[in-house]
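> forwarded from #structure-qc
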């Protein structure tokens, strides 16, 4: 059966004052910054269905979630529309074993789920896929050791700071782990001198990085994370290009709007560019201190007209398709599924129900019926 689904809005300082508002048709007097639209059953901000929250609805009707149901996470995935006007924090997400151990440990300490010093708000790992809806910039994965040592030499800290000197002499995951921790804790005068020394970097090679360091330093003048463009890869995505972010991968979204799909978790460990809680000891346990060149993903063409982004998560897959009056799609979904209309108007028909979706509207397809026909004129994302 198909159900209308209303997302939950998240207001953070880094949010856009226009993208989500225009997508979902908010009136002009409500044009406050909006960062995310959540479409899922995570307890922090569940979507709404048939007059109740989706998590409660599925717990009362577990058969509608199919084999993926668990009482802790009624849906295995979470779909978001994300719109960043300014950069998000540098962050990393845990694997399943780390999340389970961390969540249990913080529960035993008596930390409330909404405590500002919590690292683990659930017991689930967090894998992410971000698909650009506008030109989108992000930092993702550590650069090659060669690039990092080149930057540290130019900044004048390859010999003046012991941990950085050890890394530049013998680059490896352990020496980079120690150097990275040092870079996040520079004294204010050392940070100021290091920022001054960025003028020694070749602008023909480091143009994007220098531009972002300047902007980050304006936004976070005392935050050592402003140096991150020198050790994290900067990635520029065009609309309908995507990145997959595995656990242990450092990243920060810098600017733009995108569709984000993830396992149903809100576990975040932060490294910088934030006023929120930073736990460097726990962060160092979760981060993978190896170079990771970014891989830009594009839709696979599907025979049905529905294409998917290639990625390795078992808990979700993200598809996209366009329809017009001459191209109805007859699909068999992996249910449960969420469909979000991005353009035009769609008609979704199953044997037991049907619904019309306009731009910015969403639907939840439960596990009772996998077959669906989608017609009209428009475009949509589906996560399942």
């Amino acid at each position: 059966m198909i159900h209308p689904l209303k997302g939950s809005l998240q207001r953070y300082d880094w949010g856009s004052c226009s993208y989500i508002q225009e997508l979902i048709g908010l009136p002009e007097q409500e044009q406050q910054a909006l960062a995310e639209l959540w479409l899922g059953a995570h307890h922090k901000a569940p979507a709404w269905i048939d007059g109740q929250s989706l998590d409660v609805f599925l717990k009362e009707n577990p058969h509608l979630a199919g084999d993926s149901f668990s009482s802790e996470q009624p849906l295995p995935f979470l779909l978001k529309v994300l719109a960043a006007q300014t950069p998000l924090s540098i962050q990393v997400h845990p694997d399943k074993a780390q999340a389970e151990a961390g969540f249990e440990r913080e529960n035993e300490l008596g930390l409330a789920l909404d405590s500002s010093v919590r690292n683990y708000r659930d017991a689930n790992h967090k894998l992410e896929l971000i698909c650009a809806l506008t030109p989108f910039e992000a930092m993702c994965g550590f650069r090659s050791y060669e690039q990092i040592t080149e930057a540290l030499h130019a900044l004048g800290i390859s010999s003046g700071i012991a941990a950085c000197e050890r890394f530049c002499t013998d680059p490896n995951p352990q020496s980079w782990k120690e150097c990275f921790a040092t870079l996040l804790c520079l004294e204010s005068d050392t940070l100021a001198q290091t920022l001054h020394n960025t003028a020694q970097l070749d602008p023909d090679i480091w143009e994007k990085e220098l531009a972002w360091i300047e902007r980050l330093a304006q936004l976070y003048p005392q935050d050592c994370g402003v140096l991150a463009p020198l050790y994290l890869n900067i990635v520029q995505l065009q609309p309908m290009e995507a990145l997959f972010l595995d656990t242990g991968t450092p990243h920060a979204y810098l600017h733009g709007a995108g569709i984000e799909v993830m396992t149903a978790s809100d576990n975040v460990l932060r490294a910088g560019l934030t006023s929120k809680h930073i736990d460097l000891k726990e962060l160092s346990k979760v981060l993978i201190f190896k170079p990771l060149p970014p891989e830009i993903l594009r839709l696979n063409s599907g025979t049905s007209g529905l294409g998917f982004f290639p990625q390795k998560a078992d808990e979700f897959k993200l598809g996209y398709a366009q329809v017009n009056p001459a191209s109805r799609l007859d699909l068999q979904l992996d249910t449960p599924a969420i469909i979000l209309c991005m353009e035009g108007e769609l008609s979704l028909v199953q044997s037991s129900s049907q619904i019309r979706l306009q731009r910015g509207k969403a639907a939840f397809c439960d596990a009772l019926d996998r077959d669906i026909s989608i017609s009209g004129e428009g475009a949509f994302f589906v996560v399942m």
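QC bot note: The longest strand covers residues 251-263. The first helix runs from residue 19 to 24.
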